[in-house]
């Protein structure tokens, strides 16, 4: 599952836009979306793009490779929980979610996440900012989406604490950088 925002001027990468302006932020976001498509298109799994506002049929997500839906209602945790619940109701055995703001993400890392789910109940890709860029599981663990301070440095440690409290076997992927601020762009290019 890929969670994306519809690429609209002034509505994407707002923290980044504060430094570079909304036009440049939209340009950067479109580049991030393109990167995410390249990373995921050839991964041999079913793929579903969840849009923030409305499904766009003729966009950079080819209909032959990606199913398309609108994100469920609620805050981020509620949206992700409902999306995982729907996937497991549709009888998927392993489900991974990513966002669209990690230029360091590779096809190999996404494939590694599914590989790890063969021997672990949960896989997490921690982000340098304290969040995560990827979360995967073999069945719904609703606690991982509840009581979180989304978009803060507490998300990954609090999620990991829940995983450990629930005694779930887990694997961690490489720690990568998300693009949220102008400083993150330099990190992406230097690593």
From TrEMBL:
<dbReference type="InterPro" id="IPR029044">
    <property type="entry name" value="Nucleotide-diphossugar_trans"/>
</dbReference>
<protein>
    <recommendedName>
        <fullName>Glycosyltransferase</fullName>
    </recommendedName>
</protein>
<dbReference type="Pfam" id="PF09837">
    <property type="entry name" value="DUF2064"/>
</dbReference>
<dbReference type="InterPro" id="IPR018641">
    <property type="entry name" value="Trfase_1_rSAM/seldom-assoc"/>
</dbReference>
